[in-house]
Write a structure and sequence with these properties.
12-stranded mixed sheet; 19% helix; elongated
Length: 423
Amino acid sequence: MMDKDEKIEKKRNEDGVEQSENVLRTDNETDKNKKNKHHTKKVRTISLSIFLAVIVWFTVIYVNDPDITTTVSDLDVRFIGEMAMREKGLVITNKKKIPSLSVVVTGKRSDLMNFMDDIYVQVNVDDVNSTGEYTLSGTISIPTTRITVERENYGDIPIEVERLVSKDINVTVKQTGTLKNKVVHSVIDDPNVTITGAASELDNVAGGVATVDISNLEGNGVESVNYLLVNESGGFIEDNETLESTRSSVNISNKIYNAKTLTVVPALTAELEAEYLIKNNKTVVTPQSITVGTEEGNNTEYLVARIDSLPKNGEGEYEVEVPGGVYIPEDVRRVKVRADIVKKSIVQLDLSVQTENVPQGLTASADSVTVMVWGEEGKVNQDTVQAYVDVSGLGKGTYSLPVKLKGENVGLQDNYTVNVNVE
């Protein structure tokens, strides 16, 4: 056990350690406080400098606002009475040919900064009553009396005046974007638009194009779309000084169809089919199939490209017929057909009839038949044509079955049946 003196010594040591720790902690806190005070002082100094700089700038600009003289270049030219000219059937053209105009002005710095863009040249055209070339004087328009004109660097202003004419154009629709597994039919409700302007500009206008983005369509509907004017080559008309239209937009109706790819089959018109036939094994359609839009539940299996005239050199371009419930986009409505079209003849033949697909364990026999067969002229005979009936799925008995033909580019002129005995 510790005696009394040892306990006192231990207590002194513990108090000494604790006192040292307190001194160290106090020193650390003092250093930290000094750093914080220094940082705060630096931030205050920077903020004060910025504030003083702003005050000085405002003082120079607004308190010490000197008079200065400067040149204002590329002044706008505004014509007084231009709308009245249009009412008289006249219009100013080639404004871009007016030479650059400038003026030397004097005023307070602040006024020049505030009103520089509002200084322009105005030209009165009230007395212009016919087409031709004119040289007119202009006057400087200053928005405030605190700015004075020192020198005008321009003379009389040349202008050209043309007759105002009108023209009807057709606005077409152009689609951008895609809609997965869908085809969209976009139709402009009223595509006819009347535009007016100088004849020199109007002659360059071939039509208008309204662009609709179909990628975000959620259902059928109508939307208003602005259109742009285009020239004969389809390029957009960017320079437009005099053109105005009755309306700047058109209403477009969008109808969404299911996308379906269908084969295109060539066929003759009834008039040509009376004398000719297509040798399908030597006929090529380009493209062989096209993607169309079909209404829900539509079961169209193929499309027909109707040949209405004999193609020169065996090749022609023909329009695809549009079945009910099907939408064919304009850009795929025509296909190229390279067809072997030959003269057609109709021949009466007495043919024996073969039986096919006879059920196992049974036999079948059919009567001979007399039929009218069409085919390539000079190639329809008993050696090139074979008649048969299909007896699949039949049991014993006597049946009247439709006659079918085998042969190259041949067919029955009518529907024929024959008696068949299955045993």
